Amino acid sequence: MDTELKSMNPDPSKTDPVSRDDGSNSKDDRPLLKSDSNRNSSTTGESIEDLEKKFAAYVRNDVYGPMGRGELPMVEKVLLGIAVVTLVPIRFVLALIILVVYYIICRLCTLFSAPNRDEEEDQEDFAHMGGWRREVIVWCGRFLSRMLLFVVGFYWISVSYRDIDLPDQNKSSSQNEGKDQSEEPERLGAIISNHVSYLDILYHMSASFPSFVAKRSVAKLPLVGLISKCLGCVYVQRESKSSDFKGVSGIVTERVKEAHENSSAPMMMLFPEGTTTNGDFLLPFKTGAFLATAPVRPVILRYPYKRFSPAWDSISGALHVFYLFCQFINHMEAIWLPVYYPSQEEKDDPKLYASNVRRLMAREGNLTMSDIGLAEKRIYHTALNGNISLPSVLHQKDD
Predict the structure, then answer these.
(1) Euclidean distance between CA atoms 122 and 284, whole angstroms
(2) Which parts pass through the membrane (predicted)?
């Protein structure tokens, strides 16, 4: 499922993140990795080593090397051979069974229900369905998502909840205290997470079963299509340059506002970076997740590894799944930060809101901020595939 948000906000922010004036942590002063404004003339003829320095956020640092095609040591080849005849078949069958079982559950629960449709924006979902059927879909989805992670080697997931003091949050607290004591505090609008792998989606499904942003083609996929509708995914046409960008952004904003105002509405889960990294970096945030000016819950995901990195950066999907299935144990860490309540200044400026949340996540997750994005990722991938001149990709970047 593609959750990248580029189509929601086609013009990436070119401003440097603005830090909240808390003056409490020197990590906010770490240098950014700058993209080269003269890339059109300088990229031609550059070595892979030079590109790896420039596009460090997408470089694989595990034993499998760039694109998972590096020369493996003999020990790793032996371990892969053992896994191919033992782990891979078992895991493949179990994963397929879990997927089919959940599809059947979703099919039965939606059998006599009409989906929520938005014909104008070509959106359709079952996330607004209430009653016991919705409860079955949610709880089975959370359980089976965690089982799927278990099957592929994530036997333990380290989850921590950090209680930290956020600047300007005292104002929001005092405002909440000024309300009637019987009223609940201001509700969450969306969950915000860094994006490292498609595995991020399975974790968030198991943790809170939110709605995601997905490519429109996902809705038509066998098995996964119906599941995505039960999640309440917002579908986008990524490569299209039609006027429906504003429509999609508007749908996401409406869904975030709905979750903020209605406790029974599905929660939105957004990856504001717009693409995956190797897990050590945090890219600029798109503003689509922050236009509703609702509070957000930041989550930081990390994948510690010794041999194979679960990050989906410069490796093909099929090869990534194969290597993932071959690992005897995989590791994941989830860090949940407190709900972030925007100040009035941030509500008036979504870019400021996005960059402040980004700085907070970079500081708490010990992540390096980079100002490169999806266009640079395509350049790096094209270079790895042997086309060092990169003319077509560079023209896409200019457009």
Answers:
(1) 29
(2) 78-105, 136-157
